[in-house]
Design goal:
The protein is of the alpha/beta class and 397 residues long. The chain folds into three domains: 7-226, HUPs (Rossmann fold); 253-311, Tyrosyl-Transfer RNA Synthetase (Orthogonal Bundle); 318-396, Roll (Structural Genomics Hypothetical 15.5 Kd Protein In mrcA-pckA Intergenic Region, Chain A). It has 17 helices and 15 strands. The protein has helices at residues 7-15, 24-33, 54-65, 96-111, 129-132, 137-143, 150-155, 157-164, 171-174, 176-191, 203-216, 254-262, 269-276, 281-289, 295-311, 332-336, 346-354, and strands at 20-21, 37-43, 69-75, 124-127, 195-199, 222-226, 239-240, 243-244, 318-321, 330-331, 358-360, 363-364, 371-372, 381-386, 390-396. It has a six-stranded mixed sheet with strand order 1-6-5-2-3-4, sandwiched between helices. A five-stranded mixed sheet has the order 9-15-14-11-12, with helices on one face. A two-stranded antiparallel ribbon has the order 7-8. Helix 10 crosses helix 11, helix 12 runs antiparallel to helix 15 (295-311) and helix 13 packs parallel to helix 15 (295-311). The relative contact order is 0.11.
Length: 397
């Protein structure tokens, strides 16, 4: 098994971030020898990123932590084409105003995950519309087109999969791979960028850029893709019955985001702690191996840590009660009715308690008139769960 020497590749390998790499041995040598410049691109085809993009955001944090320069490329230009990778049909074409608005929102999504410290290099945001908007088509074909093999492009998954299924692939979409490769050329020339990171579906686009730079700029650069993250049930990460798990609080509340992580499959918890939190591996392994540490506690840690990165320390929805109000006691049904997003009325609270759906600090409660006093407070809070999907905290102030 390959044993990397650079802090970057060690961290990526140990946490499970590496799927494919054009030359992992040489990239490791380069990252061990100097601080590299790497880029990760995000197209702007929606008003927010979702959890499916989270592995790339965590990758940015690792690059920052290990001292490397990260370029985030916002794809206003490529969003006008639409990436065919993993798609059964053409994307809806967006106008410039929609793309610009999406770009601004996605930049805000990304900024929430960045490390902002004096001793950490700032991430540089660039936009590929800078060089794409004024391309001279004839000159572009003469310089770059002659260095791109259509035969090879037809073998790339993003193209071949659509053709095998006999689904339409427009010439517009066919050009996406060329344009993304050209982005890499431009970043190599402008910023001395030597590595492109992306999801597994980007492998063909990335390797096309690596080949093009070798031919045009006469330089050796690298590409690395992260694995497609699936859940234990085989589903695609970030997709639920209710739709995408958005990173924007406008589209999904911090509580909804926390609930998503709290309710992941038991089998996914350790993997997700490695991929989607900043907890060090020794602590994650300790949690995994500690028999006294139940799976629900690990899920709470995952939910807290993941939500903290996306939304700050306001984790799941929290409500407060003054300590002196508990001197005489408050009925449990009144306390859980504080969460109006889950409970519509006191009568519904009472019905849920009678039905055995409510737990107080992990203990099942059946008495709808149970009085909650300061004796039930642990670490200045009370934890409530309703059914298997809803958890919230009552802070005692």
């Amino acid at each position: 098994m390959f044993k990397p020497k650079s802090a970057l590749i060690q961290e990526l390998q140990s946490r499970g971030y590496i799927h494919q790499c054009t030359n992992i041995v040489e990239l490791d040598k380069l990252a061990n020898k100097k601080k590299i410049v790497a880029y990760i691109g995000f197209d702007c085809t929606a008003e927010s990123l979702h959890v499916g993009s989270l592995i790339q955001l965590m990758l940015i944090r690792i690059l920052q932590k290990t001292g490397h320069q990260v370029i985030v490329l916002l794809g206003d230009g490529t969003s006008k084409i639409g990436d065919p990778s993993g798609k059964d049909k053409s994307r809806k074409l967006l106008d410039g105003i929609e793309i610009k608005k999406n770009s601004e929102n996605i930049k805000k999504n990304i900024e929430k995950f960045l490390i902002n410290k004096d001793d950490v290099k700032n991430v540089k945001f660039l936009n590929n519309s800078t060089w794409l908007k004024n391309i001279n088509y004839i000159n572009f074909l003469r310089i770059y087109g002659k260095n791109l093999s259509v035969n090879k492009m037809l073998t790339m998954d993003s193209v071949s999969d659509r053709l095998k299924r006999e689904q339409p692939l427009s010439f517009l979409e066919f050009n996406y791979m060329i344009i993304q490769a050209y982005d890499f050329v431009e970043l190599n020339s402008r910023e001395n960028c030597e590595v492109q990171f992306g999801g597994s579906d980007q492998w063909g686009n990335i390797t096309t850029g690596v080949d093009l730079i070798r031919r045009i700029n006469k330089k050796e650069v690298f590409g690395l893709t992260t694995p497609l993250i699936t859940t234990a049930s085989g589903g695609k990460m970030g997709k639920t019955a209710k739709g995408a798990v958005w990173l924007s609080e406008k589209l999904l509340s911090s509580n909804g985001y926390w609930q998503f992580w709290r309710n992941v499959d038991d089998k996914d918890v350790t993997k997700f702690l490695k991929l989607f939190t900043d907890l060090n591996l020794s602590k994650i392994n300790k949690l995994k191996n500690n028999s006294s540490d139940d799976i629900n506690n690990r899920k709470k840690i995952l939910a807290d840590e993941a939500t903290n990165l996306c939304h700050g320390k306001n984790l799941a929805d929290t409500f407060s009660i003054k300590s002196n109000e508990l001197n005489k006691g408050i009925e449990l049904f009144k306390i859980i009715s504080l969460n109006k997003k889950v409970i519509n009325s006191n009568s519904e609270s009472r019905r849920l308690i009678r039905g055995g759906a409510v737990k107080l600090n992990g203990e099942l409660i059946n008495d709808e008139l149970k009085l909650i006093t300061n004796k039930n407070v642990k670490n200045n809070k009370i934890e409530i769960s309703i059914g298997k999907k809803n958890y919230f905290t009552i802070k005692i102030v």
